[in-house]
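Narrative of accomplishments. A recurring question from our advisory board has been how the design workflow behaves on a single, concrete structure rather than in aggregate. To address it, we present the structure tokens for one chain from the evaluation set, followed by the sequence designed for it. No filtering or post-editing was applied between the two.
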């Protein structure tokens, strides 16, 4: 058997170690079942309500994963430590991002085991076609959980808080892989490896329909981490094309957003952009033109305080198209919401095919 490093909290007790090995094997297997079910779940198209996704099968596959995580967390790792190391373990659970996921999932495991409430998942992201659909289940935000779960005193308030911070609204597969990664860091000898290799068995998860980013291994970054890096790189590189023409502005969450078209050689592309990013683009040498309601064009500039001007006058005061006379206002707002919440969509708006 290959010698492996002891990890943060090695399990020395032989009986607990054997139990931990079995539960880690099960957890990896259950994660693969959740992944495969999300790629093969029943989905139908309703002309009134859009896609009707059957997420019950996914929730059913999640339940044993939650039970395995709780057993590994409490019975195997925590209970095998000395009193001092138990305190240290609880401290890391509360501070480590992946440890918080483990702690937050306790809320769902306890609800599934002890409460008269179903543990449901939701999905608003789907790829594929009518013949083969993949869904991306995520956990419900804390405030949308059933009252029986939110008001339960059977689970510590720390687990409630961890769910709100690290689990609610996140992709199910991300949280399960985070939990596995944390437990693996606690004791790598609990995991099951492919014979004769250093590769974790069941990982990477099977590749399905092509998508912008799929986390298929516990060692890979989560989607939020990847999105943060994609957004950072996207903002650092000027947009594709020869310049942009601003035709309208609106407010979103207190910020001024500009929209218009990006000038390219063959076909123009619509864009939406925050005021701050427009200023950064101009400082990097990328040209913006603003068009007033009467069709007049104005060169947009930025001063030392990152304030935008159109031929010397504040851009925010320029009389541009209003919601009544601009035909694409709602489209602009929808496009901005997509860009603000999905870094890959934002990258497409700026760079078409990536950085």
């Amino acid at each position: 058997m290959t010698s492996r490093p002891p990890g943060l909290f090695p399990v020395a007790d032989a009986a607990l170690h054997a139990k931990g090995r079995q539960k880690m094997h099960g957890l990896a297997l259950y994660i693969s079942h959740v992944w495969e079910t999300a790629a093969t779940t029943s989905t139908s198209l309703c002309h009134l309500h859009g896609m009707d996704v059957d997420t019950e099968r996914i929730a059913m596959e999640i339940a044993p994963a939650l039970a395995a995580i709780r057993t590994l967390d409490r019975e195997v790792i925590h209970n095998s430590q000395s009193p001092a190391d138990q305190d240290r373990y609880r401290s890391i659970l509360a501070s480590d991002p992946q440890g918080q996921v483990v702690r937050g999932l306790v809320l769902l495991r306890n609800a599934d085991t002890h409460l008269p409430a179903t543990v449901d998942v939701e999905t608003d992201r789907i790829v594929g076609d009518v013949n083969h659909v993949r869904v991306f289940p995520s956990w419900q935000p804390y405030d949308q959980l059933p009252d029986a779960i939110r008001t339960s005193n059977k689970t510590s308030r720390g687990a409630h808080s961890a769910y709100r911070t690290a689990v609610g609204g996140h992709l199910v597969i991300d949280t399960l892989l985070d939990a596995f990664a944390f437990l693996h860091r606690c004791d790598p000898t609990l995991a099951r490896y492919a014979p004769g290799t250093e590769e974790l068995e069941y990982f990477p998860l099977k590749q399905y329909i092509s998508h912008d980013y799929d986390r298929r291994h516990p060692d890979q970054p989560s989607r939020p981490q990847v999105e943060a890096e994609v957004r950072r790189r996207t903002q650092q590189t000027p947009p594709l094309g020869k310049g942009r023409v601003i035709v309208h502005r609106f407010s979103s969450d207190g910020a001024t957003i500009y929209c218009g078209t990006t000038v390219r050689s063959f076909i123009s592309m619509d864009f939406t952009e925050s005021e701050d990013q427009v200023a950064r683009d101009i400082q990097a040498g990328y040209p913006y033109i603003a068009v007033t309601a009467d069709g007049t064009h104005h060169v947009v500039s930025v001063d030392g305080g990152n304030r935008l001007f159109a031929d010397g006058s504040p851009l925010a005061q320029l009389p541009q198209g209003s919601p009544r006379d601009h035909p694409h206002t709602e489209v602009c707002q929808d496009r901005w919401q997509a860009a603000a919440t999905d870094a890959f969509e934002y990258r497409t708006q700026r760079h078409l095919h990536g950085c």
